[in-house]
# Entry
Amino acid sequence: MICLVSSPTHRGRFITFEGLDGCGKSTQLEKLAKVLRADGFSVTVTREPGGTATGEKIRNLLLDTATAGLSPLAELALMFASRAQHMKEVIQPALAEGRIVLCDRFTDSSEAYQGGGRKIGSEPVLALHRLLFGNLQPDLTILMDSEVSASVERARRRNIARASDGSRAEHDENRFEQESRAFFGRVRQTYLAIAAREPQRVVVVDARGPAEETHARIVEIVRRKLKSAAKTA
Ligand code: TYD
# Structure
């Protein structure tokens, strides 16, 4: 199989956060970054789609509710276009410097949303990942599991709050937040199937309780992972 990136030097640690829209991922990621920095690690916080100037342009196109009629395959290809740029400009250089990269969403999002939600299936998503990135995988993925209904409602409330402060860019729901409960049900099932398939990499964290409890659990999981990685290094 050809792989279009050179074999990654992987001295740092690559940790991704996944979950449904509105599950509290971004807040947890920021809180974890603070803890790890206080522990003395160099941390890069980034996100997908986006994370680079080009990626943010692709993100605007993907999330804009005015983007009508985008085909599922075009959507998938744009997610990977953003990811390829992100990998080259941000993720690989940071890992090569030995940093911890905390990334809000990665290929599991494509598998869950485009593969599951849009019904493209997992295999084309995994094949694209292999083609572009070979066997580069996160060292750890925190999957924040939440109820479909609670998550969708929370995302809606968040968007209404944003709309009331008048900022145009965040004005309305993003294209994904307009999707149906059935769509998010498929996204969640695909996430859980990924976790069952790759239990070494993916840890499911119940995101339904108080944020402080979720934070404590995430810190415990990440610290344990960093310790065991240090032992095997
Ligand atoms: P965002 O507002 O960042 O949502 P969240 O804060 O919940 O992460 O929007 C990103 C959206 O893009 C989100 O609905 C999931 C979607 N997405 C995909 O469909 N496929 C992907 O590969 C990625 C990275 C994101």
